[in-house]
Amino acid sequence: MAEWVNGKVTQITHWTETLFSLTLDAPIDSFTAGQFAKLALEIDGERVQRAYSYVNAPNDPNLELYLVTVPEGKLSPKLNQLQPGAEVMITKEAAGFFVLEEVPDCDTLWMLATGTAIGPYLSILQQGQDLERFNHLVLVHAARFARDLSYLPLMQQLQQRYQGKLRIQTVVSREEAAGSLTGRVPALIEDGQLEAAVGLTLNAETSHVMLCGNPQMVRDTQQTLKECHQMRKHLRRKPGHITSEHYW
């Protein structure tokens, strides 16, 4: 059974009307980049909880989580209204297997995310450990509108930090925006636009793909990778080319 501790909100950043980040101070156990915790509030006498991935590196004591407000949701609208100093419950121990330890060696590691699912990759890249076994890193963040690319400045900082090893690409589906591809990730893979934009080849011989986000995007992209690039899901007992995590 999960052990809960109290965390104190030290900062809340409102990116848009619905996207926001919470920064917490809490006595949690150490975690692995890519893992998630659960946040909870007591609402009408009930502990309402949801899972959210850490954005910060494990060695950063400022615990950061990237959230979207679900209008009809029980928890996210309440979290969006918190102010610095407020308390929120958080699981002491993180969970999840969307970590580099589960990813096999390859030449190019593709990290594809929609929406708030960019979080695990930012944690992994900020931590910077166990990445030397990949020659190339590709980080793709897909959102509906350019204004939803909240962490683009951090992505650009990380690109500079990795000195050519990391390539970043943004994708928007509801408008055209400078520097971003337009459309859905599966279609951009199928017609070769994503490969052309980053200048690297996506194939089963040299690549591994991490998928995180909207379950429909994950399913559709898996199918596209299977049909167009002969890739298959990666399992410990049967190594493959795709590691995925649904975000709700």
Task: Provide an overview of this structure.
The model has no long low-confidence stretch (mean pLDDT 97). Strand 1 (4-14) and strand 2 (19-25) form a beta hairpin. The protein has helices at 76-80, 119-127, 152-161, 185-190, 193-198, 215-229; strands at residues 4-14, 19-25, 36-43, 46-53, 63-68, 87-91, 108-114, 136-143, 166-172, 180-182, 207-213, 242-246. The protein is an alpha/beta fold and 248 residues long.
Q: Concise description?
A:
This protein is of the alpha/beta class and 248 residues long.
Features of this protein?
six-stranded antiparallel β-sheet; six-stranded parallel β-sheet; 6 helices
Rounded to the nearest angstrom, the radius of gyration is 18 Å
The unreliable regions are none
Q: Class by helix and strand content? A: alpha/beta
How much β-strand is present in the residues? Answer: 25-35%
Write the layout of secondary structure elements.
Layout: E1 4-14, E2 19-25, E3 36-43, E4 46-53, E5 63-68, H1 76-80, E6 87-91, E7 108-114, H2 119-127, E8 136-143, H3 152-161, E9 166-172, E10 180-182, H4 185-190, H5 193-198, E11 207-213, H6 215-229, E12 242-246
Parallel strand pairs: 7-8, 7-11, 8-9, 9-10, 11-12
Antiparallel strand pairs: 1-2, 1-6, 2-5, 3-4, 3-6
